[in-house]
Amino acid sequence: MKLPSSYLVIYCSLVLGIIWATTVRANPWPQWRGPDASGHAHSGNFPVTWNLDENIKWKAELPGRGHSSAVHSDGRLWITTALETPASEEEKKERLKTNEGLPTVTVLSEVSLRALQINPETGKIIQNIEVLRKKSPQWVHKLNSYASPTPVIEGERLYLHFGAYGNACLDAKTGEIIWKNTEEKLWVMHENGPGSSPLIWGDFMIFHLDGSDNQSVVALFKQTGKIAWQIKRSGKLRENPQHKKSYSTPIVENFNGQPVLLSCGADWVYGYNPKNGKELWKINYGILGFSNVARPILGNGMFYLCTGFVKAELHAYRYHNLTTPKLAWKVTKSVPKITSPILVKDHLYVMSDGGILTCLIAETGNLVWRERIGGEFTAAPTYANGLLYFSDRQGKTTVIEPNDRLIIKAENVLDGTPHMSSMTPYEESFLVRSKNGLYRIGK
Predict the structure, then answer these.
(1) Minimal CA–CA distance to 433: which of 48, 54, 59, 50?
(2) pTM of whole model > 0.85?
(3) Domain limits at 361?
(4) Residues with Cβ within 8 Å of residue 61, at least 6 apart in sequence
């Protein structure tokens, strides 16, 4: 029986509606480490094992190089990358005369900083948008990239931060550039390249600018990109400029009924009022702590942070009913300088850069167990499916069952190239970035 055209129109509309509903049903992962910055995925049946022949939905060949993680919302998936034009040997030699930091750096003649929109169902690149272009950019450390900060997606907008190179806002649907901000007062010398990711809170896009020359926290009006406030770090720092830089990402949490921007810089952790940048308190680590990378995490009326280089410590601060948080406990052995901690119920897990995994009682800091996993780690861990996922620089993801002893459920290898980025859950799958591309891993 042939249906009238009006019925066909209604039927097609219903089908398209179902397809769209299915597409946008995925729980959003709008920023680095997820909606609440905890590294916890939504509930679902995520894969435990994979390789190039098992549980691979697609692979996207990404142009350029980057260490940012993918973000998504309403079926729109974005990631950043950098197209690099290497400097000549003569140019490299001349520019590195002013390098007072590490010699293991990448020097470019030019860099094109880009945002890529990817079809989450096929892996096809839908849009490849040049956001910023910079000649003779600062060098970056060999373990870093020019596109390491993870963007933030909120509603119809994508917010991008490329450290001192600038900031931008794109229409998340069309890719149209809504605004850019490359003001000179937002310029710092990163030494090792940009690393801190931004966050969106209220009307603001907030980020750190902790260089070897200047250190501040900045909020831009997210609608226009204009500076709302910029607060210089007040804590006294070491004389060596290399000990003044930091790459940590802030987080906002309600402390005793008041929103507080929790911000780790060199040698100090700060609490700011995110509405205006007013400093509420600051606490000295008590040791030399700089080049911080790990994002602090929260739970149990406490926050946990890693102090960074040279000798990292793990600190737990209690803030419930306190005007200024107070150190509850600290751990000094096998603490990561780069990777972030993760909290699962009453246990805290930290993976050292050199592959030693430590499980602690989150309330007291008492050791449950400490075991060598092996490998070298940079990416922050993810908790999904009741399991912990740790990806390393050798391209292996080790899957751990949270327990009072070490239980390894799987060891998964893709193409054998480094995993420098954190995993992004999408529906019941993972988006994993290796040096060779972006994979969607799922059953």
Answers:
(1) 59
(2) yes
(3) 28-442
(4) 436, 437
